[in-house]
Amino acid sequence: MSGHISRGASPATGAENRLFVAHLRGSHLHTTQTEIEAPGPAGPLKGTLLSPDTGDMPVVLIVPGSGATDRNGNAPSWLQASTYRLLAEGLCEEGIASVRIDKRGMYGSASAIPDANDVVIDDYAADVHSWVAAIRARAGASSVWVLGHSEGGLVALLAARQSADIAGLILVAAAGRPLGPVLRQQLQSNPANVPILENAMSILDSLEAGDRVDAASIDPVLMPAFRPQVQRFLMSELTIDPAALLADYMKPVLIVQGARDIQVAVQDAELLQRANPQAEMAVIADANHVLKAVRTADLQENLAAYSNPDLPLADGVVEAISAFVHASSLNRA
Length: 333
Known about the structure:
34% of the residues lie in helices and 18% in strands. It is α/β, with parallel strands linked by helices. The longest helix has 19 residues, at 121-139. It has 2 domains: 4-177 and 241-332, Alpha/Beta hydrolase fold, catalytic domain (Rossmann fold); 179-239, no CATH class. Strands 1-2-3-4-6-5-7-8-9-10 form a 10-stranded mixed beta sheet, sandwiched between helices. The radius of gyration is 19 Å and the shape is globular.
């Protein structure tokens, strides 16, 4: 992807930054990057608004994936891909504004609730409603599109059931099956998990049945994923069928799936489209789960992309999303 964007100070400062970008088609855009807030349960939810100065433009709300993923697409451990920041910058070059957000209880949104683990997935969907209202009020946006990445896709689907102000959905690397089968497949596909597999399957069976699992019964290797503090959240989402939710959705939908994704399969995207044949689907040949360019089937190359913020997004990711948003926005006019 051609074009250049020069970055100002970190969005975490909340200062308004003036950025100059070269548009892909050769014209020049000035853009504004600034902190934005939405009402949360006990304190504000916070995020970053990046917008081209082109008057009324569509806005994409980027809903992050699972765990402690921040507004830029990074987490404290090994996830440093900056996927959401790169996506926001790419969309800005295409004349589309975006808001990328910190989840309630985390990072900039730390004061929204006292305990970041004290959530169910419907809470995140409620936050999407709050964000959409705030974006419409702050940015004056006539259309707000909700992009959910990975687990964020399920959050987007849940939110879309109850919000007339959502223009449409962009489901990126989103599962087409309930989380239980997805986790089982992920665990079983890694030969290194053989020693813990029986314990993992037992834990999933219990959680799907609505029964908590005592910490003493969890292998230490599995504790980060199934520790008691997150079991309530897991139970809230394990049995939700995203394809069933999408089947009832009547507004525009784009499904984006990377062919190099080792966490969510192309078959999941196909399940989603089968549930809603009107949905558009873009399979990106060289994109992995964090949308980075991965040229081969080498597992180590794929995993290394998760911690490389300098690796660009795969060709076609931004283009597919921007083409969908612009075309669908014109159809709404």
